[in-house]
Amino acid sequence: MNKDSRIFLTLNHSVNLTEPAYDGGLGTQIGFAIIAFLCIVGNLLVFMLFFHTRKLRSSSHGLLIWNLSIVDFLTGIFIIVSPEHIIREAYIHPPPGLLGQLFCMIIGSEIFTFGFGFISMYTLCVLSIERRYGVVKSQLHAIYFSTTRTKWMIVFVWIWGMLLVAMNIFQSHYAADEIPPCEWRPLPGGPELNMAVYFILFFFRFLLPM
User: Fold this and answer.
1) Among 5, 91, 94, 119, which residue carries the largest CB count within 10 Å?
2) pTM of the entire predicted model
3) Whole-number Å distance between alpha carbons of 203 and 191
């Protein structure tokens, strides 16, 4: 097999393909590997701290930091699991049919990688507001950031973060003879609708949390 051709094998499927189309080189892979390592190891240390400090687990501030560490830990896991970042050409090509499409919807769409990123951003927003009330408006802190309300805020942030990337599921499609095996397709409705949707998502994903 020469450098311009690669053979990817699954249980019942083999694919001969031209040069892979992954973005970035070895430096990008190393960068993602370092990020994933720091996310996993760093947040494992945070987990250990929370397990040994009960007071942190019972405060609104602690709950938000605990949630942030879980999200960032999972982000590191999915950076490794997603073929786009580290594994790339060495990734086992998913089989055709339903399994291949499910792979593209769940893994290839990177819905969890980006979804956890947005959950982390909005958690930081809530955390900054919580700290402001804790320092500047301490008399209202106990009312707005009780343990129960903080837990509901965390639930909302998780739902909201995943909703922001839900469209990815419908745009990532399995392509048996391509590398990467998942191709990105625009939403039905034409370029105007796609542009409008992307602008709205850009606002809620990046501008609003700022």
Assistant:
1) 119
2) 0.84
3) 18
